[in-house]
Design goal:
This protein is mainly β and 71 residues long. The protein is built from one helix and six strands, in the order ββββββα.
């Protein structure tokens, strides 16, 4: 029976929503705006103002969400 509290969790395959790149060797990162999984090539960490604290934070934002305001 598998150990449910293992330090080595099973890796799940994922696919980038921008380019359809797939992987199960690396950890996926979700965009902080659209919450879709994105590969490192299509993700940038941008400075965003946190309305609650008044401080700026680095947040992962995908290419699609970066260009959406400019369309």
């Amino acid at each position: 029976m598998p150990d449910m509290c293992s330090d080595n969790p099973e890796k799940s395959p994922w696919m980038c929503h921008v380019c359809s790149h797939t992987s199960n060797d690396s950890e996926p990162i979700a965009c902080s705006v659209c919450y879709k999984v994105t590969c490192a090539l299509h993700l940038a960490h941008k400075t965003v103002l946190n309305e609650e604290s008044g401080l700026y934070e680095l947040q992962p934002i995908c290419v699609e969400c970066q260009i959406k305001p400019h369309l």
